[in-house]
Write a structure and sequence with these properties.
This protein is an alpha+beta fold and about 150 residues long. Helix content is about 35%, strand content about 30%. A hairpin with a 2-residue loop joins strand 1 and strand 2.
């Protein structure tokens, strides 16, 4: 599956209304909400063979993209050490911050698939939360999602 096909399939099945992306720039954490992740922010990579070796779609932001997002209104939310202290990994820490500080809800880690609902509900909108370096989806997940949606 190529990048465009993976993106098209992901967007077709995605149950969220928007995505909040987080990233680190000069030891500060920033967040920005977008209707969906732009293709230029995604790369196709291969997961390790111990995880199956499937192709993965990942969120990758270089400094040029980060600077553009900051100029266009990305919000500074704190230092990397402050945010990372919230959970065991960066993605969970960022998701916890968004859930508790932005949505005003209690955060708990879950494994609800992207095609069922977003990571957090903010003002009635389903929102996907992704931190830089996150796996957006894999080929295997897209196949499983297609099968699950057909069966429903």
């Amino acid at each position: 599956m190529n990048k465009n096909t993976m993106i098209r399939n992901y967007r077709t099945m995605d149950a969220s209304d928007s995505t909040i992306m987080g990233f680190v720039y000069k030891h500060g954490i920033y967040m920005v909400e977008l209707p969906h992740i732009m293709p230029r922010y995604m790369t196709v990579e291969k997961e390790s063979t111990s995880h199956g070796g499937a192709l993965t779609l990942r969120l990758r932001l270089n400094n040029l993209y980060k600077e553009q997002l900051i100029r266009k209104g990305a919000t500074y939310i704190g230092t990397d050490t402050e945010i990372y202290a919230l959970a065991k990994n960066k993605g969970h820490a960022f998701e916890r911050y968004v859930t508790e500080q932005v949505a005003g809800q209690h955060w708990e880690a879950d494994n609800i698939p992207f095609y069922v609902q977003g990571d957090v509900n903010i003002n009635g909108k389903e929102v996907q939360v992704k931190f830089e370096g996150a796996t957006i989806t894999t080929e295997r997940t897209l196949r499983n999602a297609r099968l699950a949606l057909r069966a429903a």
